[in-house]
């Protein structure tokens, strides 16, 4: 399989708070070795981090050093200049949070990125990872609230983002037997979200990390969701490994691409200076 035209649009580095195993230069080398066409570094920017009572005191935010990270990207890019391959891009994964809208606005205005992923990591002033978010909620309530939150913050962001990040992140730590977000469970809500993405020219992310097994759970990408996105006129599918270490770069892309092709998707997107560029999936 020729992977030369695939771009990994979602990767973390040592500049993210959870990037202890990351190494930006090694990730670019991994992208080159795997024959990827390009890699975009999208470190975390969550401007509000919930506090968990009686456990530990997290920082109040998880901002990364944009200048330091972009300087490192420029340094590493220079090492690959002769080949101009793989292409390396500067991005951000912005954690949307209603109460932080003003700060998020300022942040996105103050910095320049090739690509902006909008993600929800925290909601109801808690981290789903801790588990309390799910208490007293059915899976439909827990997943539905997450989707509604993501939708309303994307609408608010408008043209300040490019890619909807892992809409199914909320399944990752959930206690329910329903391990996936399925179209049949949220048809109206998903239609609303997918229509918005399609009409506004935003990308649907295929976050391959979500589909790895985690504590015996393995969410799947519901083909009905892909189909609806296409039916509603959506054009941009973004591949992202959500890697936090060089080994994770491009992980699962072979399977994901075969899957996408089964559903008639022939192109994937990446971003250069916030402009979508599509390349064929061979
Ligand atoms: Zn994320
Ligand atoms: Zn991420």
CATH topology: TIM Barrel
Number of helices: 7
Which structural class best describes the helix and strand composition?
alpha/beta
CATH architecture: Alpha-Beta Barrel
CATH superfamily: Metal-dependent hydrolases
Please count the beta strands (DSSP E, at least 2 residues each): 9
Strand content: 15-25%
Shape: globular
| Gyration radius from CA atoms, angstroms | 18 Å
Q: Fraction of residues in helices?
A: 25-40%
Q: What is the H/E order? A: EHEHEHEHEHEHEHEE
What does this structure look like?
By secondary structure, the protein is an alpha/beta fold. The protein has a single domain, classed as Alpha-Beta Barrel (TIM Barrel), CATH 3.20.20. Helices cover 30% and strands 18% of the residues. It has seven helices and nine strands, in the order βαβαβαβαβαβαβαββ. Strands 1-2-3-4-5-6-7 form a seven-stranded parallel β-sheet. The protein has a two-stranded antiparallel sheet with strand order 8-9. Helix 4 runs parallel beside helix 5. The protein starts with 6 loop residues before the first strand and ends with a strand. The mean pLDDT is 93. The structure holds zinc ion (2 copies).
Q: Can you lay out the helices and strands and say which pair or pack?
A:
Layout: E1 7-11, H1 24-33, E2 38-46, H2 66-79, E3 87-95, H3 101-110, E4 115-119, H4 139-157, E5 163-164, H5 187-200, E6 203-207, H6 223-231, E7 237-240, H7 253-262, E8 267-272, E9 275-280
Parallel strand pairs: 1-2, 2-3, 3-4, 4-5, 5-6, 6-7
Antiparallel strand pairs: 8-9
Bound molecules: zinc ion (ZN) (2 copies).
One zinc ion binds at residues 10, 12, 93, 242.
């Amino acid at each position: 399989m020729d992977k030369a035209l695939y771009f990994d649009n979602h990767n973390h580095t040592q500049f993210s708070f959870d990037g202890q195993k990351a190494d930006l230069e090694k990730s670019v080398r991994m992208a080159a070795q795997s024959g990827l066409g390009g890699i975009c570094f999208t470190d975390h920017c969550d401007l509000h981090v919930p506090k968990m009572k009686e456990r530990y005191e997290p920082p109040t935010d998880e901002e990364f050093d944009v200048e330091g990270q972009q300087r490192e990207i420029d340094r590493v890019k220079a090492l690959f200049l002769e080949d101009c391959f793989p292409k390396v891009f500067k991005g951000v994964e912005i954690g949307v949070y209603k109460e932080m809208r003003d700060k998020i606005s300022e942040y996105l205005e103050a910095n320049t990125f090739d690509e902006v992923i909008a993600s929800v990591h925290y909601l109801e002033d808690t981290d789903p990872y801790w588990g309390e978010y799910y208490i007293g909620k059915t899976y439909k309530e827990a997943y539905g609230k997450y989707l509604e939150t993501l939708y309303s913050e994307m609408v608010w962001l408008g043209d300040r983002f490019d890619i909807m990040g892992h809409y199914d992140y909320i399944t990752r730590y959930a206690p329910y037997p329903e391990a996936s977000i399925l179209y049949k469970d949220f048809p109206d809500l998903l239609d609303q979200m997918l229509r918005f993405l399609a009409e506004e020219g935003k990308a649907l992310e295929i976050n391959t990390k979500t589909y790895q097994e985690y504590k015996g759970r393995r969410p799947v990408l519901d083909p009905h969701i892909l189909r609806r996105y296409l039916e509603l006129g959506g054009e941009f599918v973004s591949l992202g490994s959500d890697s936090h270490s060089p080994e994770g770069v491009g992980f699962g892309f072979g399977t994901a691409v075969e899957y996408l092709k089964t559903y008639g998707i022939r192109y994937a997107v990446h971003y250069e200076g916030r402009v979508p560029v599509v390349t064929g999936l061979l």
